[in-house]
Structure formats: C-alpha cells, structure tokens
Amino acid sequence: MARILVDLPDDDIRWLDHAAAGQNVSRAALLREAVHTYRDRTASAGIERFFGIWQDRSAPRDEDAQ
Known about the structure:
There is one protein chain. The chain is mostly helical. The chain has helices at about 10-25, 25-45. The chain has a domain at about 20-45. The longest helix is centred in the middle third of the chain and has 18 residues, at about 25-45. The N and C termini lie far apart (about 55 Å).
C-alpha cells in the first residue's frame, strides 16, 4: 500500500478525527473508506449520466445524411 501526503484545513482534520473516533477507526481507515466509496459512486454513474443529453435535439433527417 502506498502512502500519500495530503494537506487539509484544520477544521477538516478536527472533523475527520471526530468521525474516526466515533467509528472507532483510524483517520487513515476513514479516508480509505471515503476514497473507496467515491470510486464506487463515480464508476456506477457511468453511462447513466448521459441519458437524455440530446433530448432537445431533433433526429437527423434522411436527406441530411447525404
């Protein structure tokens, strides 16, 4: 497992420490879970985010294809 260095505002660190203590996990474990959850959400949002993107466009006519 690789290590990273992240700069966060003091308020975020205090929130992170409080959340980690409330779940009885380390700060690092909470951040790993957050990244994992973010990856799952963005991966599952794949093609669904494009549904309806052309809803305001009309379908091309046959004579336009020539």
